[in-house]
Amino acid sequence: MTDLGRWLLNLGLPEYEGVFADNKSGAEAAFQQAVGIARGRGAKVLELRAATRLGHLWFDDNKREHARDLPEPIYGGFSEGHDTPDLKDAQELLDAAQ
Fold it and tell me: 31 Cβ partners below 8 Å, 6+ apart?
């Protein structure tokens, strides 16, 4: 695991605006890496959080289908906790990307 991947997991995957404000491609790569790391560890909430952050990047770039397709199946795997900030954020993104 790279230092960046470790950092993203340890800090709870901070919002990209504060970390990668001038480097969207770097943010995209970092969140893709974070999704993979979280998936490999079975950390579903972190996987959803990273996928949602990446989805926000894609949504902002008018890639709505991509913004929906990545987090949607992860979100669908949760049967409870829909009132938590991570699941609310994912649901809002999915609704907006319809």
Answer: 8, 13, 16, 50, 51, 53, 54, 57
* Residue with the two structure tokens 């997991």: 9
What's phi and psi for 71, nearest 5 deg? -80, -20
Where helices occur in 22-70 by DSSP H, the ranges are 24-41, 44-60, 64-69
Question: pTM score, two decimals?
Answer: 0.81
CB 50 within 8 A of CB 8: yes
- 6-65 per-position pLDDT tens digit: 556 555 555 544 556 567 777 788 888 888 888 998 989 989 998 998 999 899 999 999
